[in-house]
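Sharing in case it's useful to others searching the archive later.

Someone asked me privately for the predicted structure of Ig-like domain-containing protein, so I'm posting the question and my answer publicly. Question first, with the sequence:
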Amino acid sequence: MLKSLFVYGLLGVLLIPAKCNPIVVCIEDDDDLRVDCLIKSKPNKINTYEFSWSSGTKEILINTNVSGSSADSQFKSTVEELQPHGYRMTLSHFKEKIPLNTTYMCKVTGEIARIKMEKAQLAPCSAVSLFLKSSCSWIICLLLTLHQTHS
Ligand SMILES: *[C@@H]1O[C@H](CO)[C@@H](O)[C@H](O)[C@H]1NC(C)=O
Ligand SMILES: *[C@@H]1O[C@H](CO)[C@@H](O)[C@H](O)[C@H]1NC(C)=O
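And my answer, the predicted C-alpha cells:
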C-alpha cells in the first residue's frame, strides 16, 4: 500500500506536469486562438483568472477578472468556464497576429501555468485534444497497472 502510494506520487510528480500541462494552446478551425487553462479553482474562495503572454521581454495581459487590473485593449477576447474546472480564453480570428515566439501564461486564483510555443508549433485544437486525451489516459493506465502489480 505504501509502496503504491509512493509510485503514484512519483509518477504524478514526474509525468503529469510534463504530459498533462494544465495550459493548452491551439488554433480553432476558424483561426481563433484558444487557450485552455485547466487549473483547479479552490473551493470556498473567490476565484479569479488571468490570461497573458510574453513575447520577448514584454508581458501583455489578455484577459482577467482580477479586480483592479485591466487587459490590453487591443485584445477582444472571451473567457468561458470549463467543466469540471478551468477556463477557456478565445481570441477571434487571431491566427495571423500571433507573435512568433510566445510564452502563454494563465493564472487561476494565484496558481500559474505557462507554456512556451513557437507559432509554427501551434496545432489545430481537434488534434490537440485527441493527443491530450490519449497521453493523459496512458498515464492513468500505467498507474493502474503498477497499482495492480504492487498489491
Ligand atoms: C471571475 O470569474 C469567475 C468565473 O466566472 C467567478 O466565479 C469569479 O467570482 C470572478 N471573480 C471576480 C473577482 O469577479
Ligand atoms: C524562437 O525561439 C527559437 C528557440 O527557442 C529560436 O531558435 C528562434 O530563432 C526564435 N525565433 C524568433 C523569431 O525569435
